[in-house]
Amino acid sequence: MIRFEHVTKSYADGTTAVDDLSFEVAEGELVTLVGPSGCGKTTTMKMVNRLIEPTSGRILVDGEDISTVDPVQLRRRIGYVIQQVGLFPHKTVLDNTATVPHLLGWQRKRARARAAELLDLVGLDPSVYGDRYPDQLSGGQRQRVGVARALAADPPVLLMDEPFGAVDPVVRERLQNEFLRLQSQVRKTVLFVTHDIEEAVRLGDRIAVYGNGRIEQFDAPAAVLGAPATPYVADFVGADRGLKRLSVTPIEAGDLEQPPVVRLDDRLSTVAERLAEEGARWAVVVDDSGRLHGWVSADAVASADPAVRVRERARRMDAWLPLGASLKKAFSTMLQHDAGWIAVLDGDQADHYLGVLTPARLHEALRRSIEADARGGARSEVDVETVPGL
After folding, report:
1. Which of 50, 101, 223, 312 has the highest local Cβ count within 10 Å?
2. What crossing angle do the helices spanning 327-336 and 359-375 adopt, rounded to 10°?
3. How confident is the model at residue 385 (pLDDT cuts 50, 70, 90)?
4. Where in the chain is the domain with CATH 3.40.50.300?
């Protein structure tokens, strides 16, 4: 969808902002451009909509050389979101969102209907927010309006220049979550500029790590974190890149342990036998449909009447996640609940219980993920040596 062919941007004072840049962004792909200030990432993005003209080389969008396209017409076909949003203060939220459709000659009714649809898509009820003005919104809400406005004419390409950088960390995370949800629905081709490696890793299908006008590494987030291509990339992503990699490594079925499982209506005498057979100190409790109910400890079983049913001694289990959630989320959930393990559920099958993830298995999963990337294979094919528990 977007292709750079030996693109260079130099200035009269001898500064080279972008040096012989060549890369491609596939249709529907979200690529994050990350690097320190002055490295060329914003210049790269602005050349796509011709806010900056390259000194040499070609940029193609959907196979068309953009230097042959009228800049104004080109920009109306490309969504653009910036950090300060740039909403018109004298226009309502609905009219701000409908700006580009109006410029394209859409009838007012159609443009406003599209604007209302997009506001709803970004989580702003048009009946509540449509008639408000920008100064009546929070920073996060203005940012959502900016994204809606960029999408209003259904552009194939979306350019985003640090769009969430001006809000506090909590709102920023919410906006990132909302944008990932939105992107899963609209599947735009996105160039997303950021200086934050964690944001780049979280959002990008691939990451372009910039250094002095060149791309030092262009790869999947897990690969950038697990196998930095150069010392510069290793230094930029940080010594804690293993921790950052947790956020892009999902929980897989092969990561799970299988402790004893008992039913709500089992008698405690049966549970005691199961725990003794397997040498376990606790068991997972599920209902007759296999849905997670909680857990029961060996101590609770030993101190009760053996004829009592499990449901009378089971404890609630709040530390759980769906299969496919990130290892970072799993680690965070363990800490939040002070839990030595979390239950993992299959959300596609009415929260069916699958197994548990322990800290040791989490660590193994991370190591297997790194090794799998190095070999070019699947995690399930990788065995790692572990240190026996003391």
Report:
1. 101
2. 170
3. low
4. 2-248
Q: Which fold has domain 2-248?
A: Rossmann fold (3.40.50)
Nearest to 162 by CA among 137, 119, 193: 193
- DSSP β-bridge partners for residue 297: 282
- Give me 298's structure tokens: 């060996």
Bridge partners (DSSP) listed for residue 191: 31, 159
CA distances 146 to 34, 70, 124, 371, Å, are 21, 24, 12, 41
Residue in the block written with tokens 């900016």: 146
- The topology under which CATH files domain 253-365 is CBS-domain (3.10.580)
What is the rounded CA–CA span in Å between residue 295 and residue 308?
15
CATH 3.10.580.10 residue window(s) in the chain: 253-365
User: Are 374 and 226 a contacting pair, CB within 8 Å?
Assistant: yes
Instruction: Catalogue the E-assigned strands of the chain.
Output: 2-10, 16-25, 30-34, 56-61, 64-65, 78-82, 157-161, 189-194, 206-211, 214-219, 261-263, 282-286, 292-297, 315-316, 320-322, 342-346, 352-357
pLDDT tens digits along 154-210:
889 999 998 887 777 877 888 888 888 888 888 999 999 998 888 998 899 999 999
Buried b / exposed e over 204-237, threshold 16 CB at 10 Å, is: bebbbbbbebbbbbbbebbbbbbebeeebbbebb
Q: What is the pTM of this model?
A: 0.76
Is the CB of residue 190 less than 8 Å from the CB of residue 200?
Answer: no
Question: How many CB atoms are closer than 10 A to CB 43?
Answer: 22
Closest CA to 190 of 69, 58, 32, 7: 32
Rounded to the nearest angstrom, the gap between the alpha carbon of residue 197 and the centroid of all alpha carbons in its chain is: 12
Half-sphere exposure of 23 (CA within 13 A, CB side): 24
